[in-house]
């Protein structure tokens, strides 16, 4: 989930224009999609737009269309439960709030779950799984969620500002992967910041990764308690790092104190705060491939998804490179999952809304690895 608006819309428009011209030149398939209706009372009527791209996916990771177009979706967290793919995204809508550095215009109020039985098949949107009105401690802004399962129960982890406007992480439970989810009456004790991501290791122990700077408030927790003032390291000091903690057996609380997950450069030194192309911003995600752990994340104001690798889940991780270059719109948020013996990258962009950074759509593309285990960077647009 993104936390600050900068004027990338012009770049997005250029990318979208260039993408459209190139694909038109190649006479690719054109599909007429319906822009999702805005959710607030003053919503404008739906309008049709032309979205250009190839239907489905292929082994080369060609550009993909939005998975659903009846609503705007973002920040996809993908998991395979019982041989079916489930995606847990944010639900964007037009709240009519001016854009600002804290991301107040990202005023999401509920979650919807997507599912599919096969790539290229029907994508189901299952309606509201959890609403802000159901959460007793809720203030505002339901940002990027994630989900996990254990012993036949499904757990939705979600960041939400409390009534003091401080981000906490909540948990909601369901008997079904698509909900409806019933929230716990209080946020997780000791939780803070945003972008929860749950990783189940080979022994089925679950770990919670989280954190995000700027509007994600991680920089306000450097002293161990919330401060109204930002506290960033200097540019030549180690960057703020994502946090991680083991989850308790009941999946509802933290088993211990969150710790920093260190991201190192090629010389073994921590990535610096001023290294904007490599430092952690938000959207931490962990997956495991051929015995190695991969920590991928967004660089925020340089708009990339990058990754680091480690032999140990809790790090340290060594920076390796780019997963996804900037997309149309300001934010870049993702997940990576294996489905039916292939690996996929799930991401979002703002092509459907013609560059409106707070109205995004979830997409997916096949992810490739090199022989040494490094990731082949994915290009979302035709050059």
Automatic annotation (TrEMBL):
GO terms for biological process: xylan catabolic process. Keywords: Carbohydrate metabolism, Glycosidase, Hydrolase, Polysaccharide degradation, Xylan degradation. GO terms for molecular function: hydrolase activity, hydrolyzing O-glycosyl compounds. It comes from the Bacteria. CDD domains: GH43_CoXyl43_like. The keyword Calcium does not apply. The keyword Kinase does not apply. InterPro entries: Glyco_hydro_43 (IPR006710), Glyco_hydro_beta-prop_sf (IPR023296), Glycosyl_Hydrlase_43_Enz (IPR052176). The record marks 195 as: Important for catalytic activity, responsible for pKa modulation of the active site Glu and correct orientation of both the proton donor and substrate. Belongs to the glycosyl hydrolase 43 family. This is Alpha-N-arabinofuranosidase. It comes from Paraglaciecola chathamensis. The lineage of its organism: Bacteria, Pseudomonadati, Pseudomonadota, Gammaproteobacteria, Alteromonadales. The gene is xsa.
